[in-house]
Amino acid sequence: MAKLLMVLRHVPEDEVEEVRALLDAHGIGHYQTEPSRWGVSHGGLWLAEDGDHAAARALLDDYQRQRQARAREQAEQDRREGREESFVDQLRREPLRVLAAVAAIVALLALMALPAWLLWP
């Protein structure tokens, strides 16, 4: 029976390709389901055989630790070299999107404070 290895919600395509290649390299049968049209399901990477789950999980855990270390190292290098994107950089690049997000946050905070304000003597 098939067993779900990982849900593909917010997983970059390069990571999915690397995981598939890792499973192929170790001879672990797998298949991928695509996300649903209406966003109910986000797709997943499934193992064909239930007995492969422990080995696949160990491989995936090791892969994710290595990927996390690479990402942190890259982020630290970007920070040292001054390439890290700041809030001001985002504001310059996409001012309407940033201002819309700030306006939405302020509106939600105001909406949450409205009951207390209406009950204030």
Automatic annotation (TrEMBL):
<dbReference type="Pfam" id="PF19661">
    <property type="entry name" value="DUF6164"/>
</dbReference>
<keyword id="KW-0812">Transmembrane</keyword>
<keyword id="KW-1133">Transmembrane helix</keyword>
<protein>
    <recommendedName>
        <fullName>DUF2007 domain-containing protein</fullName>
    </recommendedName>
</protein>
<feature type="transmembrane region" description="Helical">
    <location>
        <begin position="98"/>
        <end position="120"/>
    </location>
</feature>
<keyword id="KW-0175">Coiled coil</keyword>
<feature type="coiled-coil region">
    <location>
        <begin position="56"/>
        <end position="85"/>
    </location>
</feature>
<dbReference type="InterPro" id="IPR046162">
    <property type="entry name" value="DUF6164"/>
</dbReference>
<keyword id="KW-0472">Membrane</keyword>
